[in-house]
Amino acid sequence: MTAAPSDATSPDGGPPDGPPAGGPGRKLGQLAELEVSVLKGVGTAALRDLAELGIGTVLDLITHYPRQGRYIDGTRLVPIADLVVGDKASVLGEVTRVSSPSSGYGRGRRRGPSRVEVEIADDSARLKVVFFNQAWRAKQLAVGTLALFFGTIGTYRDALQLSSPTADVLRAAGDDGEPDDGDRKGRIFPVYPLTEKANLTSARISRYVGEALDRAGRFADPLSEAWRRRLDLVDRTEAFNHIHRPTSLAQCEPARRRLAFDELFRLQLALVLRKLRLQDDARGIRHTVSRSDGGPTLTDRFLDRLPFCPTGAQQRAITAILDDLAGPLPMHRLLQGDVGSGKTVVAVAALLVAVEGGHQGALMAPTEVLAEQHAGAVAELVDSLTVSDPTTLEGWRPLRVALLTSKTAARGRAAIHAGLADGTVDILIGTHALLTDQVEFHSLGVVVIDEQHRFGVEQRAALRAKGRGPDDTGHDPDLLVMTATPIPRTAAMVVFGDLDMTIVDELPPGRLPVTTAWLRTPLEVEEAWSRVRSEVARGHRAFVVCPLVEGSERVEATSVVAEAERLAASELSGLRVGLLHGQLPSAEKERVMADFRSGALEVLVATTVIEVGVDVAEATVMVIEDADRFGIAQLHQLRGRVGRGSDPAWCYLLSESDAPEPEARLSAMEQSTDGFALAEVDLELRGEGTILGARQKGKSDLKLARLISDQDLVVEARSVAEELVADDPELSAHRLLVDELRIFIEDDEAEFLFKS
Ligand code: ADP
Ligand code: MG
User: Fold this and answer.
1) HEC profile for 380-426?
2) Shortest CA distance to 518 belongs to which of 619, 660, 625, 612?
3) Alpha carbon distances (Å) from 315 to 37, 291, 446, 508
4) Which of 199, 410, 622, 683 has the most other CB atoms within 10 Å of its CB?
5) 668 CA distance to ligand 2 middle (Å)
6) Which residues fall inside 5 Å of ion ligand 2, going by CB?
């Protein structure tokens, strides 16, 4: 398809649109400034309808893409007269009769499903179409409506019939605008995503888009021809035209690829620029990673004293981090590793580098339980390490680790604040409480954020800002972000594209994969409880995770209490059963965890408060009730609470569900214990929505790009963005790209990326 002529006249008969100002070709920025009301036929009612779909500007309109893969090929439409029983057919017809919804055959309680009968016709014949339990179809398919029906042709009392097909309205009854069906026979037309509420049809959107594209003329293309050739992408004018009005189905995918590339490219460009700008502005610390006297650093001493030998992957990660820390720029690194791969050791090694140089370290965790556990573990790991302190008689003092959560008592908190300000607290561990204004550091050197998926970008920035201090005289601390469970590589490029990445791809030696079984029937479930009893008899411990409950934490707590009582009185009678949920007071939580660690409690019935990080080596059984309610990442994380020692461990997923989606999740869990493999499955099942939810702030510009099937595009977009920014960090030769980025990112982000 060629571009429409650019001499179309404006609707009010004014002068023809000349070539857009400021260079050849139409810019997206110009379309973002134009309201859809400039289009013919878009009056007040249409404006309202379009607004329902989030369409306000011409740019919104032309980036409202046809539903993925839904094009109707007019060349393959079969006339009604030629239909044969058993055909899977697209039938284009106008509604000639419609029954009001009937409640069908039968009376009273035995009444059948409600039923709407519609008769449609084309030039060749008539056809009966029936819908069950879709009473609203009677209204949607009023007489005179032109619609496309897709389904399998059946028969009823010797006549052909289409039952419950999909139906896409192309022209509503009484809609007097074009398209007459005549000229559609030989065309491909797109099916647009519509809401039931919006009073629009695909045909009307198609008409508006067509007019917009005709009048827009040729698009300016930020990708030069050389680049397009290298990337095998069509030009932008062709892409917009082919995605909205292809003349053959073969045009659709290349058009989609090009526009999807643009989305990913803008995103990667913003991320690559963000990374660069953070460096431009940085006041980093060159940390001391080796001592001038050649003696062991705190990190060396810490690693020497570990009761185990770090894995090769841990050593590689630590080396990469020490390199970053020694350099002048602040580190921005993502540490990915499977559950149980030992990320905490790597984090502590980094925190100690800060302390070595007289700075402080901070570790932020998403939950109180986890923060407490980290504080306990870190205190133990650094026990007997000392820091030099000329004010003491000895010239040194013990290294001081403090825990700060919202539950920390006022007096303790004041002491911690004071210690942070004068530098006598070396490592601070805590929850969001670390972000409060009262927390001021003497000199914050290294920040670690655990289980990053629970925190937003803003919180990352807020914690980092603690290094500069309120008067902005300090430094930018080095930042290490850790994920709870792995996310696929390409997804990480999108979500954490402004961070460098290190992967800990090795588990400590001697770990046995956790045997995982999905138990469906009461008989099968007995296996789980008998395993709990036999493992406890051998001195091990077990977790029972209760289902997620809709509603408040309090409701959830009540149900956990009930389940713990039930189990203690039945399947697990005679065992010492404890209880853990978010509503317990801190002291109680701490006591329960301590008792479980020591073995005073043998079974812990809990909500997902134990999800992340809880580390008890003797725990060998995990029972997850109503496992179908949980997502893969969460199940994998929960399962990671067992099998942390060298004993065999089991995870039982209890669920009677046979719905396809939970089935896919639970089977994946049974088949694999590899978090990276599961992450791919998860992304495939859930789509990108959830991952992108955690993405950089801002409007999601990814409408066409798919993280799994477009992995190659993600990688290409990344490499082109890096190449471009390396050559031209201000993008001064790429004003068009800069303008486009400004449309798609938030103002304050744009401010940061392009200071001017
Ligand atoms: P995660 O990566 O899931 O946060 P943790 O850091 O909590 O994992 O470590 C899991 C467990 O493995 C902890 O008990 C930790 O002490 C232990 N561990 C870590 N590194 C090693 C190692 N190299 N050899 C043996 N055990 C290790
Ligand atoms: Mg961890």
Assistant:
1) HHCCCCEEECCCCCCCEEECCEEEECCCCCHHHHHHHHHHHHHCCCC
2) 625
3) 62, 19, 19, 12
4) 622
5) 22
6) 613
Could you tell me the domains of the chain?
A: 76-185 (2.40.50.140), 298-326+342-483 (3.40.50.300), 515-672 (3.40.50.300)
User: For residue 320, how far is its CA from the centre of ligand 1 (angstroms)?
Assistant: 19
Please tell me the distance between residue 617's alpha carbon and the centre of ligand 1 in angstroms. 10
In the block, residue with structure tokens 């056809």: 127
pLDDT digit string, tens, across residues 252-270? 999 999 999 999 999 899 9
Angle at 130 (CA atoms; ends 124, 131), nearest 5 degrees: 140
The reported pLDDT for the residue numbered 120 is 95
Q: Which residues pair with 542 in a beta bridge?
A: 603, 621
- How many C-beta atoms lie closer than 10 Å to residue 593's C-beta? 22
User: pLDDT per residue over 425-476, tens digit each?
Assistant: 999 999 988 988 899 999 999 999 986 665 666 777 788 888 888 888 889 9
Q: Does 431 contact ligand 1 (Cβ within 6 A)?
A: no
CA of 134 to the centre of ligand 1 (A): 55
Q: Coil, helix or strand for 197?
A: coil
- pTM of the complete model: 0.75
Cβ 620 under 6 angstroms from ligand 1: no
Among 306, 334, 343, 344, residue to substitute to test ligand 1 (most atoms within 8 Å of Cβ): 344
Token digits for 513? Answer: 């994969």
Percentage, residues of the chain above pLDDT 70 = 89
Q: Where are the alpha helices (DSSP H) in 584-623?
A: 586-598
